[in-house]
Amino acid sequence: MTRKNFIKNLITLGAATPLMTSLFTSCNRSGFDFFEDFEVNFNGNVLIIGAGAAGLIAGHILNRYNIDFQILEASSVFGGRVKKIEDFSDFPIDLGAEWIHTEPSILGKLLNDPQTDLKTDAIVYNPQTIHLWKNNKLKKRNIFSSFYSEHKFKNSTWYDFFDQYIVPGISDKIVYNSPVTEIDYNSNKVKVQSQDGEIREADKVILTVPLTILQNNFINFLPALPSEKTEALNQVSMPDGIKVFIEFSERFYPDILLFGNIIEALRDESKIFYDAAFQKDSDRNILGLFNVGDSAAAYTSLNTEQEIIDKIIGELDEIFDGKASQTYQKHIIQNWSKEPFISGSYSHYDDYDALETLAQSINDKIYFAGEAYSSDSQATVHGAGETAYKVTEQILKG
Ligand SMILES: Cc1cc2nc3c(=O)[nH]c(=O)nc-3n(C[C@H](O)[C@H](O)[C@H](O)COP(=O)(O)OP(=O)(O)OC[C@H]3O[C@@H](n4cnc5c(N)ncnc54)[C@H](O)[C@@H]3O)c2cc1C
């Protein structure tokens, strides 16, 4: 989330270490070229596996070109790692992706539809009070606010973008509760089997499931995935991830709270508390916890939600002199590591050759889209959308 622009700005200021550079180049070079209209040389049918950002955008494009397609989604909802809760507070809360990690104009590019009047409430997100918990002391690091700038939605969410602009045109093409368990690409047509035994056939398959689903061999491929793909899968990780939102009767926390050495905190990502109501039209005090990476296991691996919230309140009490337990009202936990059909946060690569290998289609039949395959904006919603544009263009051009 916030790390990316912090790092970009640190680099601009010359304050970044060389270690940061690789992280930065992996994340957030903004923008990509969407295709213009072109001659379509494909009139077969397509099965899209997964109704997250990539699957929905792929369906949106195929629909525009009147291609016969279906989206098979394992869970009972669309969105994947884009998910919201309406009734926790007086503003909708993103339980997964929350920030727009590039210019908000990306929303219009993702929609790519001049006929639709896109209305978004994207704002500049520039937290002013940035504190650091280090060596058992709370330190002000507000100086970072002067070169901190991200974007987010004011009173809507990433989920609302899909719900309002992408899903209505394709909702009748989404088949829910249909986890795909086998993909047989031995013959001319690809045969896709769901857990209930139903087999569907397609000329092309766009696979958008999270990396963990492939790593855990949830889907049986016939023939098996090429060995270079399985080797590449072993070189990438999708570590733990959790978001927690807690309502307090008082606001006792800064806009952002980081931990340890500030440069390391930004470089390693990991754990940030933030005022989730900051710049929202809200009278409520909602503190968010974002924790992705190895350190998130301290929460995600706990057995019950009570243990998770007790641990968090205990930590906040230590930092803020007991204020957390004194003013606690309620909470919501989204443990992405334990979310069925997701099982983690987002892709982390040490070796970007692995990304290229993983993104390659197989036999012009199985195409891969999703955040993990974006070379420019990996680990983001718009990066997932970008890959959907790439693979549908390949399919449509024939
Ligand atoms: C905690 C957290 C915070 C984040 N914050 C941000 C942020 O602020 N900004 C941002 O841009 N990005 C953020 N991201 C990343 C962003 O959410 C993802 O990059 C993006 O949503 C991934 O989209 P996707 O389509 O690649 O995958 P997913 O959204 O995971 O979609 C894949 C879909 O496939 C389905 N599926 C799985 N297995 C099967 C199967 N066998 N058969 C059928 N369907 C299956 C899943 O149910 C899911 O719906 C965050 C992610 C996390 C976890």
Report a brief summary of the structure.
This protein has 398 residues and is an alpha/beta fold.
Characterize the structure shown.
With 398 residues, the chain is an alpha/beta fold. The chain folds into 2 domains: 31-78 and 167-236 and 348-398, FAD/NAD(P)-binding domain, CATH 3.50.50.60; 82-153 and 239-345, Polyamine Oxidase, Chain A, domain 2, CATH 3.90.660. The protein contains 13 helices and 23 strands. A 7-stranded mixed β-sheet has the order 8-7-18-19-20-17-21. Flavin-adenine dinucleotide is lined by residues 1, 49-55, 72-75, 80-82, 96-99, 101, 179-180, 208-210, 213, 218-219, 241, 243, 292, 336, 341-342, 345-346, 370-371, 379-381, 384.
Write the layout of secondary structure elements.
Elements: H1 3-12, H2 18-27, E1 45-49, H3 53-64, E2 68-72, E3 84-85, E4 93-94, E5 99-100, H4 106-111, E6 122-125, E7 130-134, E8 137-140, E9 150-153, H5 158-166, E10 174-175, E11 180-184, E12 190-194, E13 199-202, E14 204-207, H6 211-215, E15 220-222, H7 227-234, E16 236-237, E17 241-248, E18 256-259, H8 262-267, E19 270-275, E20 285-292, H9 297-300, H10 305-319, H11 323-327, E21 328-335, E22 348-349, H12 352-359, E23 366-368, H13 381-397
Parallel strand pairs: 1-2, 1-14, 2-10, 7-18, 11-15, 14-23
Antiparallel strand pairs: 3-4, 5-9, 6-9, 7-8, 11-12, 12-13, 16-22, 17-20, 17-21, 18-19, 19-20
The structure holds flavin-adenine dinucleotide (FAD).
Flavin-adenine dinucleotide is lined by residues 1, 49-55, 72-75, 80-82, 96-99, 101, 179-180, 208-210, 213, 218-219, 241, 243, 292, 336, 341-342, 345-346, 370-371, 379-381, 384.
